[in-house]
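SAMPLE LOG
Freezer: B-3
Tube label: C17
Construct: single chain, 681 aa
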Amino acid sequence: MKYFLANVAMLVVAMLVVAILGIGHTRADAAPPLSAYGKLPGFSNAVLSPSGRMIAVIGVIGEERRLVVLDNGNRALLAVPLGDAKVRELYWIGENQILIYKSDTVALGMGFTADQAELFSAVVVPIDGRKIWAVFKGNKNITGGVRGFYGVNRRGEKWYGYFGGITLEKGGATEPRLVTTKPVLYEVDLQTGFARKIGDRSGDGVYRSWTLGPDGTVVATLDYVSKSGSWSIRNAQGQKIATGVSKLGGADLVSLGSAGDTLIYSLTDDDDGENHRFEVALGGGEAKEILADADVQHSFIDPRSRRFIGYRVTGEMPAYRFVNGRQQKIVDATLKAFPGYAVTLIDWNDAFDTLIVKTEGGDDPQSWWLVDIKTSRAQPLGQSYLVAPADVGPVKMIRYKAGDGLEIAGVLTLPPGREARNLPVIIFPHGGPSSHDMIGFDWWAQALASRGYAVLQPNFRGSTGYGAAFERAGHGEWGRKMQTDMSDGLAYLAREGIADPRRACIMGASFGGYAALAGVTLQQGVYRCAVSVNGVADVVRLMSTDLARSRNDPAMRRGLEQQIGVRRDLGAVSPLRFADKVTAPVLLIHGKDDTVVLYDQSNDMAAALRRAGKTVEFVTLAGEDHWLSKGSTRLAMLQATVAFIERYNPADASAASAAIAPAPAPALAPASTQPGKAASP
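STRUCTURE (predicted):
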């Protein structure tokens, strides 16, 4: 199939955008302002209507975020103000309504195991101007928003959505009350809001999920018993069609098979961490492993038939595999049309002849494109960040050896327009730690590169994307080999002459924030400063909090102990216990509404550092969550980070000498000892 996208050359010349969004950029003589990176993206969450004739996006008009609906002529049909709404996903309901899936941080009352929780809601937005409404709102028997979204379905002229909801029950009292937080599955009429129960809740200690058929009926139910680790899948007739044991809770439903008469489920091996996919007939029979040699990062499910149609391959650059040959040719040709760029497949219409893709990497600050297969053209839609191509820092993958010989990959972002020699450097480990960094436009790394810093994002052991054995190598290595994997990356940059090891700082968020603190407590003399955003300071408390909020769930306990370690050993890798060892300035930034790593983690670390007489700054982000979801506080975080790093590790070498005494040259040979091993609580 001959396929050519005629407009791709425009990517190199200029980043064109949808005129209605008012997004534009001209080449700046100086570095872009931090607001170009720190504000929420000016264009995001683009989705196609089933016909492909309309696009819904989250865009910025002036200074206001809006849900914008455009027709294929780029004419705005709708523009709804969103304010600070934390939109997680957008979905089309036919051609006439949009579903906004969003979350809010909500204070909980007495009797709950946490003070706050991130609750999700589904908001229906008709594009013809009718009233906007929220699923389950006003239903006195359902509380806590929605607990899972299972897609939409059309029957006749009506559309229905499928949502989990916590249901109040009589429980022997006259008024309904909260008996359990296990959700019931509901079918919701998306015109009237009427909710009909189609799937019962599970019992205590049992986790339940469902797979629906194309008509909206439940075709499979998975129950997982946390205490024993046993799981079972039943079909619509209640017959068990698959069973097993997974102590770590690794059994999940995927979708219907590509032919529609089978079920695909996944199972992660407790011992080696390998993920396997199996297919079994809905009527029962022998389950057979499929995709045994595939490394599946994400499965693609057709939203109408609910069948498995393909997957994204785990790796450093996006790659895709589709069951349908025509779809595979279209995707392959689309990727080839953007050579040298990371191309993310975002959405497609029912006919698979119109696609939305996002490109990044190289000189591209995340551009969005509408690909029309019929005309073989790519139309630019928008740009996430207002940064000119010449201002984008070069990004490449590097590889180096850890102290024990394990190969580590990392993403290196360099300052634009500067020689990569003896640069000040920021080590920027990712969160998770079950995650990994890839080639792309990282707004945080790019902001620092624009100020003259090399930024290394190491995919240390324990990261995903490099196989189960590599991920398993991180088990029990918090503050130990995972930590030296990062400083070994600094040693590599020093040997290559890229970075000056005496001018290195470490920063990160979540687990990356933990690594930043560990880099100046469990390690000393390596980094000139550390920045922890929503980071873990006390690993003992982290585990205790997670277990308490799960009501001491057995599967969670087994998983935490496998990945991090048993509680009695965690004090040895908790930065809070070693505040007196710090020899570098520390910046702590934490969202007050963080429900993942509690605000007290940074608050307690700040207090410990002050008691020890150390240089510490603590910035509270009011109303912000774990993911930096709000534009104003995200920008405030970035401004505080850059100001702190520039103060204690100036990008200009002469300024660095004048501002502070040079840091001692660290011992950057591959580590023979592991930080934390010899430490005591």
